[in-house]
Fold this protein.
Amino acid sequence: MKDKAADAPNVVLLHSNDIHSRLEQAAKMAAYIEETRRIYGDEHVLTLDIGDHMDRMRVETEASDGLANIDMMNAAGYEVVTIGNNEGLTFTPDQLTEAYGTRARFKTICANFYQLEDGKRPSWLLPNTIIHKGKLRIGLIGVTAAFAEFYKLLGWNVTDPLQAVAEQVAILRSQVDVLVVMSHVGITLDRKMAVDIAGIDLILGGHTHHLFEEPEVIGKTSLCAAGKFGEFLGHVEIRMEAAMNRPIIRAKCVPMEPREQQSQATALISGFLADSSERLSRVITVLDEPMPASSEHETSLANLLAAGLRRKADAEIGIVNTGQLLGGLAAGAVTAGDLHALCPSPINPCRMRLTGTEIRLSLEEALQREYVDKPIRGFGFRGLVLGTLAVDGLEIHYSPERTNYTRISSIIVNGHPLQDDKVYIVGTIDMFTFGVGYEKIKYGTDVTYYLPEFLRDVLEQELLDKQAITESYRHRWIVE
């Protein structure tokens, strides 16, 4: 160890989580990691990522299928990572195999992640690993959030994370000096894990973007988490107490804002940006006239997306919030990069059954500022506000002068009046099924999700249909 102080730690553990492709912040982390290794020596520093490093809203990540993030972690010297829902649910199995099985120079661990077809883990994935650092045997267990219904559509079986941790603790505890859980399951389950499962020394958390600037201690377990977007890097110092033969843990979160980017990491970002520009320059179609977008009211582009959701789901009605679109399209060539820029979210299409009453109430809410201007955070949303509702298969007559929930005078469904007690098949988005935004839609039944398609994929299909584009300019919302 290069630091000869008597109280120097046996191991310095550096951990990141939920970077979400803030690559410049990752470049700052790389500089801090490099500096820490210079001070303590490689044999005393362990660097881990707790998932959601990748986010397809970033063009370098989108265009490289996540390989830009893998190369960043390789260059920074990460040794072990676990996967978050942004990796597991927004990349195909083949893309994950390329990223973690072929490209990665680190170990990937996740104890509750299996292939659906054979019940085995993919070849690139381990349930746990033991790393030797500074004469310590450090056991690492990874788990990720169990969005089981979504994962099955991609061919994965993701099981109860706490049960998986308990099983792995029973296997590892006697073999290691320090036992660490790399947990992408959120603060609530992390706390439950600390209470219910004995033998865990340290839980490194993520998923819910919580920040512990100092560890939270539950029993004999320390909980640490470094927030979101690479704003902080977790720094944990581990010393073994000789008398009791147990680890003493001190931890902090180091702000990255004032730090300089590592030059090698910055060069990687520049290279991937150039590559992504070339890949996303693919021309999808050529528009004769612009297709604007606005969160405030229906537009041709939002209508086109609603129509695409209706067709994707083979439904009677299409519904989507206009806040999903971050911009419109100009006349002329439309590229894959244009679609990514205006619709970068990882939100997926879905199909459900809604009653006429649930549809009517949602449409009434779409006329209220409280909903249109509502900020939305998380659940895959990458816009600023919810926006109103764009629809297809509906014609809505309303008066903005009336009071809330009385503005709509009539709703026509494909030529027939909406019936409150009738059940309709609706093509919409998975975000609504979580009760986000237009909450009545969460009561939909017989829900079918479409993965790995994103909303921009739906838009791309519609943009190839000249008749669909023409139809999108027809108003669905008619003021009386």
The longest helix spans residues 23-40. The CA atoms of residues 355 and 422 lie 6 Å apart.
